[in-house]
Amino acid sequence: MAMIKDDKTLLIYAPVPLHHRDGEFVLDDQACNGLRLWAENFRKVIVLMPLSPETAPANWVPLSAVGENMKRVEIVPLPLAYRPDKFLRHLPKTRKLIRAAIGRADYMGFAIGGLFGDWGSVASIEAHRMGRKFYVWTDRVESEVTRKMANEGSWRQRLRSRLYHRPMAMLERALIRRAELGLFHGRQTYEAYARYCRNPQIVHDIHLDKADHIGAEALAAKVAGALDGRLKICYAGRADPMKGPLDWIGVMERLSAAGIDFEAVWMGEGSELDAMRARVAAAGLQDRVRLPGYTRERVMVLDEMRAAHVFLFCHKTPESPRNLIEALASGTPIVGYDGAFARELTDIHGGGILVAMDDVAGLADAVIAVAKDRVRLQGLIQNAKADGAPYDDVSVFRHRSEVIRKYL
After folding, report:
1. How far is Cα 154 from Cα 242, in angstroms, rounded to an integer?
2. pLDDT per residue as tens digits for the range 317-327
3. H/E element holding 48?
4. Is residue 187 within 8 Å of 202, Cβ to Cβ?
5. What pTM value is reported for the model?
6. Helix (H, G, I), strand (E, B), or coil: what is residue 109?
7. Of the chain's two ends, which shows fewer C-beta atoms within 10 Å, N or C?
8. How do residues 152-170 score in pLDDT, each as one tens digit?
9. Contacts of 222 (CB under 8 A, 6+ apart)
């Protein structure tokens, strides 16, 4: 077990839902890794988490996966209450649970982003009322994501987006102004929120072990193999409108029309997957584009990333997606729509190519240029590896813990 960096208690709110299975709590494996890493930096960690009544995803693991550090982690389940009536019904009792946890903590911080059912926002309000210093954490501009979804989905979803996004933005700013510290994952969220915060800090959140980074021998083989052969393209993430999956297919169509020899895979399920498959079939690209849906084994995802020459992304909302870091750590250049987070990641070594938002033609042209200049591609692969080198889970959690201790 690693040395504990602090003998005090940290309280956090994590919005990842807990589930029950066979009489015990189960959780996403990356969230379990987060609990392990927080407990390596503090004597005790109290975690507020919503408890879902639904059946747990098959790949979620028991909390025992945290290991020995779980002895120093206390879970406080909260109701899952995203509907306004459920939220208001549960609010009085849940406020008491939150206030009791605040009273037992030395440091505290809360993930925010939402409206009804956002217990992180409630916890921030309660900490402020109790005169306690706290930090807020966010990895995307949730109100803006909601606003951009106002033209997507069912009529209920569109109506909710139109009604919610402005109150969400007002709440976000009010909480950030009251926080002693703002921990913003990546420059995208930092640029959106820094003006409202008395002490904004850029941090990162990644669950990538150093051993998950591509090794020197594998990198050398990848660079050598990039000189010829099919261009290999990949993406890993949900096939939802905010990820631009139909733009991604549009790039594939243009590559085919330009006579580029390529193969591509999008790993992830979502509301747009059927439309993606229909477009692929209509364009006759079934032998070049794979859309397997959800890929359960994380090692398979990383293997695909390491094998790829290009990680092609079409993100349309202000967020700081971890898959860009995972791609760089795999020695795979990121090629996609411009944004502060992607710029931040590749600013030093240039392990990526960025084009204007929604410019499908420009994005296709960028990929075509790389496919035709393999020496340039070799350089991009090496630069991507260098840009991804600083990011591993132990380092980023240690950095966040040091920032919390310094300012709270």
Report:
1. 15
2. 888 899 999 99
3. strand 44-51
4. yes
5. 0.88
6. strand
7. N
8. 667 677 777 777 888 888 9
9. 214, 306, 307, 331, 381
